[in-house]
Amino acid sequence: MTLRIACATDDGEKFVKRHFGDADYYYIYKLDEKKAEFITKIDNNSVEEEQHADPKKAKSIVQILKEEDVNCGVSCAFGPNIKRVKKHIVPIIMENSNIEKGLKTLVSNFSDIEKSWNKGKEREYLKFD
């Protein structure tokens, strides 16, 4: 099995330290137990929040990720919308902001990520150093 991962970033090198939905871009990678392979870079053209934890913003982010068949979202932080987003993707919080190091961590923890994905709407977020 492979999973598609969306890395929330402004520069392609570091995960954003802001909420996942506030990144400028998502770098999409194909992930398995051996490697992470870059697929594409997409713009975050989600709707602007009208209020904090706006459900319209969560729906917009989920739609962007569905178009790329994304299974997981990775960032240094998620906001309150994590409870809405986790019904559609596995939210992963990375302590280390370096994407290259983060991808190695994701590869080495692939089985845990896959287990979370397979829980369906009962997914919980994962957190890695």
Helix share, percent: 25-40%
The overall pLDDT, averaged over residues, is 95
**Which term fits the overall shape?**
globular
Topology, number of strands: 6
Order of helices and strands: EEEHEHEHHE
Question: Which regions contain 5 or more consecutive residues with pLDDT less than 50?
Answer: none
Please give a structural write-up.
- This protein has 129 residues and is an alpha/beta fold.
- The protein has a single domain (3-128), classed as 2-Layer Sandwich (Nucleotidyltransferase, domain 5), CATH 3.30.420.
- The mean pLDDT is 95.
- A 6-stranded mixed sheet has the order 3-2-1-4-5-6.
- The protein has helices spanning 55-67, 82-85, 99-108, 110-118, and strands at residues 3-9, 25-31, 36-43, 72-75, 90-94, 126-128.
